[in-house]
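HOLO CASE FILE
Compound: uridine-diphosphate-N-acetylglucosamine
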Amino acid sequence: MMYICIRVTDSSKRCVLVTGGAGYIGSHTVLQLLLGGYKAVVIDNLDNSSAVAINRVRELAGDHGPNLTFHKMDLRDKSALEGLFASTKFDAVIHFAGLKAVGESVQKPLMYYDNNLIGTITLLEVMAAHGCKKLVFSSSATVYGWPKVVPCTEEFPLAAANPYGRTKLFIEEICRDIHQSDTDWKIILLRYFNPVGAHSSGHIGEDPRGIPNNLMPFVQQVAVGRRPALTVFGTDYSTKDGTGVRDYIHVVDLADGHIAALNKLSDTCIGCEVYNLGTGKGTSVLEMVAAFEKASRKKIPLVYAGRRPGDAEIVYASTEKAERELKWKAKYGIEEMCRDQWNWASKNPYGYEPQDHTA
Ligand code: UD1
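Model generated. Tokens follow.
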């Protein structure tokens, strides 16, 4: 028998539930959804995000702003989630919500398993009960562990180096299992490389609580004077300048990747599929710092230190599968990423809620 894939891609009035939609990647994706004609319902427990981001997205969406609804809700609150699904018919869910600090996950593994795994299982149960079986999930390149070669293709063996990474890996496996058990499920797992930058307006961007773990939020805080210097972790890698190499991707490109994934979910023949979202280009820590210094015209003082435990040497994506099947390709380079990161940082040096930041 021959199967023919049919795609129905009229986004008008399609309603998408976005978990974790007040966060960094979530807020940018919600904006692209609204601008693309979707209705978006955001739930977020605001543990690591701000409701101010939601208000800003609504403003940036202009005439589409009224198509955004927000509920402060924790995914583990099953009765609240049940109530939401009972009152609204969702065409699909984009699931961002989760904890993501690697070091914290090593200190508090149960908190990570409870939040990320129980939250996801509760969501999947409620979705199934209400017949909503289309999901886009935020996975991560962290599931490639320490790749032996690059670029990373979706077929690479999977490994997790810490509890945070294990939650991503487990959720991927759970998704593959539920699709196996019930082929009505259509699931896309998106493996993000290193999202950076901000919306070009400078009104939404990344605002981590506490000391940033990731490179660019740290660089940004040095540039605005919140921290004295960037510590460069490792100068003896086998890379062009000895520092770690990653695949940085503009957060707006990443957000657009979610819209492409949603469109793909309209294919009648999709099952549970995985796609890398990266640029396919590797950039070292020192190259990234130089690009940011150029964009911001600020000097970033550096302190050289040993390797960060658990870090990989070189990680970048093969983008072929996403280009071929999602018809999506990143548009922006590191110049635009640093320009937009600085625009956001200079307009919001203390993030969304300056009164909450003491350092
Ligand atoms: C980290 C996490 C990964 C997670 C990803 C996205 C670790 C070991 N890995 O990946 O699990 O999915 O973030 O949130 O934490 N660097 C510095 N100084 C800093 C910060 C980073 O030199 O203060 C370097 C790192 O050594 C690395 C590069 O910058 O070479 C990028 O680091 P980071 O932004 O933390 O991303 P990943 O290491 O790719």
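CASE NOTES: The longest helix spans residues 109-129. The pocket of uridine-diphosphate-N-acetylglucosamine is lined by residues 100, 102, 140, 142, 165, 194, 213-215, 218, 230-234, 244, 246, 285, 308, 310-311 (CB under 6 Å).
CLOSED: yes
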